[in-house]
Structure prediction request, 178 residues.
Amino acid sequence: MSGPTTHSGVMGRAEQIPVPDRPDAAETLDWWLITAPGWTPALTLNAAGTLWSQWLLLVVRLRDDQPGFPPPVRHFDGATHELMVASIDPTPGPVTVGGLAAARVLVPLLQPMNVAVQVEATDDEMREVTGLLAHAVVDGIICPESWNVAGGNRELTRGWLTSITKTLAHVRGEVHAP
Prediction:
């Protein structure tokens, strides 16, 4: 996938956010704003009782000795990237790609993080995987929200790890299970 892209599906829209050229974003490889009201009806309420329908999908590098960054905490030896999905707090209002690209503000994220999965891959592989997963969310194939998944965050993360593993195998041209 080359250049920022947008994909609309039955659940909503995924928009690739340009990674800013500034030191605090140096380890961000790719990020997507997912606005998917199709996933909202299943109890996605924050503490204030507000529905949310936006998620941030991003992948960061786990490199050692990067100025301005703490050492990465790897879940296994050889992990090179971490892919995360987080719900965006709707209280301040909808987030836009233009607002994210232009501003130096933190995205208001709800806690805990929905998905955090580490993998061993190249930057190019992770860019492609992240784009394909963004498409899968808005096409209704993979859920971004743990409240919509029986078993909560653990099962959600397991589903994402399976999807990432199979998608990486596909990107690499390897044989993988359907």
